[in-house]
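Duplicate of #3305? Posting structure anyway:
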């Protein structure tokens, strides 16, 4: 029997020049109970990168395909969200600070995944986090190009990407199956691009939320940050063990920690380990029709309504450098697009002429399994 597995392994490449500004009030430190969400969680008005472009109070008024909701959820197989651009035809690099919530289920005040947007999904529930990974038809989520990016609760200035993004779940193990109560995830990271995605949200009461949802390995992509067995056309939910913290590896009983070179101008070189997904069990498969019913009537091209474009461009102008980012992305992509492994991105390192944000190279490697 042979099956074709799409390994969701985004290769990511980070910033060339990190902003030297760091927030005095970083997102990751903000404890925001679900019943006390403010209109905008970002408070820092001095950030040279700009200010939060959407909002965190999301309700029936904001639930439409032009929503700028920046509060998202990872709950169940039929109830999760991704961060994706507000305007159509956007690269993650150009919009990372302003991405908005797109969700499978109504009731979150967000955009809804259009029919056919999610083409594969693996959700792993561990004692300390929930991991999702899968494949997408990315144009239905306003994403263009073969580049993706990391969206996380850190960001170059501590404000997160998106700036002011909030993440909640009603499904952490510690919540004991009570769908009616939501816990905030302070540490989270997602990668999206190249028609695939992955993400982890960590339970703040679980083991090592910062280490398990690290956001400092943005050049390494899904294979390292969220090891998974997602496959196009498969929708499955599994239980799993916690992975060992991102970057940590064990050879001959000796534990070591790998640190990614921070600057894009420094090649990644050889990464001293290859991660394998942590053990998983109790996998249950679903049909996509059972999971994405709420978006079944939403078809075709993304909405380009004026609310979307206005909001998004207002956010984008504060960041600048959009044109150089696009150009650098294209140049690097052509050099690295064929490499299935993270070391491939090192070849293009010198070509990144970017000054803002996490510009990321993404590739999905297809393996034939005998
Ligand atoms: C709905 O959300 C919008 C956007 O955050 C907010 O301005 C409005 O006050 C909310 N409405 C209610 C009734 O909470
Ligand atoms: C996206 O951009 C391409 C090339 O610039 C263009 O041909 C296409 O019409 C755009 N699509 C949308 C939905 O804006
Ligand atoms: C919680 O919601 C999920 C679907 O989103 C459902 O499968 C599950 O049964 C619910 N749990 C309870 C205890 O109602």
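Output from current build:
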């Amino acid at each position: 029997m042979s099956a074709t597995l799409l390994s969701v392994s985004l290769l990511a490449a980070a910033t060339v020049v990190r902003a030297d500004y760091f927030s005095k009030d970083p997102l990751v430190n903000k404890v925001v109970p679900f019943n006390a969400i403010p209109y905008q969680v970002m408070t820092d008005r001095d950030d040279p990168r700009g200010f939060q472009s959407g909002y965190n109070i999301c309700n029936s008024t904001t639930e439409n395909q032009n929503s700028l909701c920046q509060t998202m959820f990872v709950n169940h197989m039929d109830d999760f969200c991704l961060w994706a651009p507000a305007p159509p035809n956007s690269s993650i690099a150009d919009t990372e600070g302003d991405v908005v919530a797109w969700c499978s289920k109504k009731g979150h005040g967000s955009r809804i995944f259009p029919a056919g947007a999610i083409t594969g999904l693996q959700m792993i529930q561990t004692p300390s986090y929930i991991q999702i990974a899968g494949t997408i038809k990315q144009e239905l989520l306003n994403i263009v190009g073969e580049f993706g990016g990391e969206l996380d609760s850190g960001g170059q200035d501590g404000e997160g990407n998106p700036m002011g993004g909030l993440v909640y779940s009603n499904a952490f193990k510690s919540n004991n199956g009570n769908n009616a109560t939501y816990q905030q995830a302070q540490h989270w990271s997602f990668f999206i691009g190249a028609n695939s995605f992955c993400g982890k949200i960590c339970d703040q009461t679980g083991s090592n939320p910062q280490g398990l949802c690290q956001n400092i390995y943005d050049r390494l992509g899904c294979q390292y940050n969220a090891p998974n067995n997602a496959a196009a056309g498969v929708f499955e939910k599994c239980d799993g063990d916690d992975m060992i913290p991102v970057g940590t590896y064990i050879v001959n009983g000796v534990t070591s920690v790998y640190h990614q070179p921070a600057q894009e101008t420094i090649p990644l070189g050889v990464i001293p380990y290859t991660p394998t997904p942590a053990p998983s069990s109790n996998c249950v498969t679903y049909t996509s029709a059972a999971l994405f019913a709420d978006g079944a009537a939403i078809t075709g091209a993304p909405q380009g309504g004026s609310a979307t474009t206005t909001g998004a461009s207002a956010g984008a102008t504060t960041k600048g450098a959009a044109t150089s980012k696009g150009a650098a992305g294209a140049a690097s992509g052509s050099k690295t697009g064929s490499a299935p492994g993270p070391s491939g991105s090192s070849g293009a390192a010198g070509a990144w002429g970017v000054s803002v944000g996490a510009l990321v190279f993404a590739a999905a490697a297809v393996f034939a399994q005998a």
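Confirmed duplicate; merging threads. Residues 85 and 99 are 4 Å apart (CA to CA). Residues 88-89, 301 surround 2-acetamido-2-deoxy-beta-D-glucopyranose (ligand 2) (CB under 6 Å).
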